[in-house]
Structure formats: C-alpha cells, structure tokens
Amino acid sequence: MGKHYFTDEQVNELRLNPHVKNVTNKGITYTEEFRNFFVEEYERGLLPRQILRDAGFDPEMLGKQRIDALSARFKKMVVRPEGATDNRKNMSGRPKTKDLTPEEEIQRLKHKVKYLEQENDFLKKIRFLDGKAQSAQNQKKNT
Predict the structure, then answer these.
(1) Domain residues for 61?
(2) Same domain flag for 73 and 108
(3) How many domains are there within the chain?
(4) What integer is the mean pLDDT of 16-23?
C-alpha cells in the first residue's frame, strides 16, 4: 500500500472542521479536546469510524490505515502523564543527558575527555603524516 495524500480540496474541507488544529496534504493535527473526546467515546464502546463520523469527518477520506493509527496513538496519549497534549515542539530530539548522579556525571565527563584526547592524538598524527608527505613531494620536485 502506498501513502495516502490529501488533495487540496480535501485539505480545505478538513480545515473547516473545528476538531482540526492543522492539516496538510500529508497529515492532520487534531485538537487536544478532540483527542480526549475520541478516547472517551471509544471507551464507551463506539467504533473509531462512528466517532469520526459524529465529529464531522469522512472516514472514507481518512482511510482505514490512518484511522487505525490515530486510534492507537490517541489511546497511548491519554495514559501519558501529560495526557493528550501535543508535546512534539517541547520534546524535539533526544535529550543530551538525563538526571545523572554526580558520580555518573563525573564518569561521563571522564569518558568525554578521554575520547577528545584520542581524537587530538589522531589529528596530530594525520598532520604529521601529511607534513611528511608534503615535504617528500617537495623534495621530488626539487630534484
């Protein structure tokens, strides 16, 4: 199965839905209220397609794969400590360090120093060999 992109007409239609925070040809960002509503309705026994239909979405436009993915994602979201909040902007990328004890932080920094020393030694050797090759090349030119 290939990717399902929205047409410009579908994007405009989806943009009119009050439960849509943002929409592009590739995907939809739903409001936090809708995510909570979806999970509440799902827990009451309604099927995802019916919940979406009641919220003003056309399930055929969204497609089965997108519906399955959003219902799985929403169910995971509400059990997180931050709830159904969209935290992609707040948590971009991998954190550099977690909460480390002072001993762990010292160990990490010692490892970093050792790594940087090895890197410097390597760069010195490269410069030395490069200089040696350069002088050998110059001697060949002079003879």
Answers:
(1) 8-77
(2) no
(3) 2
(4) 92
66-86: burial string, b at 16+ Cβ within 10 Å, e else: bbeebbeebeebeeeeeebee
CA distance 40 to 19: 15
Residue 1: pLDDT band (50, 70, 90) is very low
Contact between 39 and 78 (Cβ < 8 Å): yes
DSSP assignment, residue 98?
Answer: -
Amino acid at 136: A
Position 47, amino acid: L
The closest of 133, 98, 7 to 58, measured between CA atoms, is: 7
Is the Cβ–Cβ distance between 68 and 28 less than 8 Å? no
H-helix or E-strand spanning residue 41: helix 32-43
